[in-house]
Specification:
Blueprint (H helix, E strand, L loop, with lengths): L2 E5 L4 H14 L6 E5 L18 E2 L2 E2 L5 E2 L5 E2 L7 H7 L3 E5 L4 H16 L3 E7 L16 H10 L7 E5 L9 H4 L6 E4 L2 H4 L3 H4 L5 H10 L4 E5 L4 E5 L5 E5 L1 H7 L1 H5 L6 H12 L3 H13 L8 H17 L4 E2 L1 H7 L7 H11 L4 E2 L2 E3 L6
Parallel strand pairs: 1-2, 1-8, 2-7, 8-9, 11-14
Antiparallel strand pairs: 3-6, 4-5, 9-13, 10-13, 11-12, 14-16, 15-16
Helix pairs in contact: 1-8, 3-4, 14-15
Amino acid sequence: MTRLIVAAGGGGDAVAAAMLDAALYGDDDQAVILTYAWDRLLVDPIPGPRGADDFTGLEPITPTVWAVPAEAHPIPPAGSTLPRLAADLPHTFALLDPHHGAEGVTRQLEELLSHLKPESIDLLDVGGDILARGNEPTLKSPLADALTLAACCQVDAHIRLLVAGPGLDGELPFEDLRGVLGPTVHTLTAKDTEPVSSVLEWHPSEATGMLAATARGVRGTCEVRDAGLPVPLTDEGPTVHQVDMDEALSRNELARAIATTTSLDEVETCSREVCGYSEIDYERNKASWLKEQQPTELNPKAVLAELDHFEASARSRGVTHTTFRHITEALNLNGNQRQDLRELLINSRPKQCDAPLWRITTAPE
């Protein structure tokens, strides 16, 4: 028996899919996880998602679907977390390639369903921006989720849409989602995070990190992303809700607009028309800025002093937690230094590690 979980937005959704697979179907289940290779610029300096041509060592599953094994490598300068995920987790990670638009993603889904004949199909989004209308002022990254939703709504199969951690991606607050969320399928616990605990130590996903943290009982306000968005960590954090697919599509104007697209360029054009922007444009601008950023040396004494200033400012904003990714950017460090920074902070102030988050205290510990 095979299950298929489609990670709607790629990145951390793939980690959450592995966590949910064990939580819903048992530790012995090893679902196929279909996901984008689309990581933040901290990991992949090239804007936008990667396709099959951006890797070596992929393994064919169908004519248009490739598995990303641990032995695969992104072709430099591209980067990807997928090979390491494949090394750390027992699941098969299949590459979702958006470069041929919604029609291409639909074709990949149809081929995979025909090949696997899965017992169940879940479409998973962490945070809930798959339910965005497209005009929300806090919405930052609707493209991947909308594209996946558009494709899933076109295949002839029963697909269950699940939203985990509503509001945790910092884009749509829980109150905006409450009316459309269906029944609670599961509430994640600390035990449910154990299968991905090693991954959470290195994976940069903030939303999935907060999902795991709330499952472990962490509560407060977490500051995330380069913009320092405040995200409430509440009892809703670890919940997983089912959502009606038709209702999701009726809300998501971008998903409807891109249903017949045949290229990523077309998808971006629709996003600019519906939402007023393409998040890949934002990545292009940021990548250009990062190229001009001078590399800095990780000086422990200087870093800890800057951390004190950052934490004092965060406390004044009511922040109780943050992510190592946000600290990296807040201290103007290079993304490649994130893991070294994490080790420095944990070794220097271990009591402040509220894994996988960093706890802001009233005074340095």
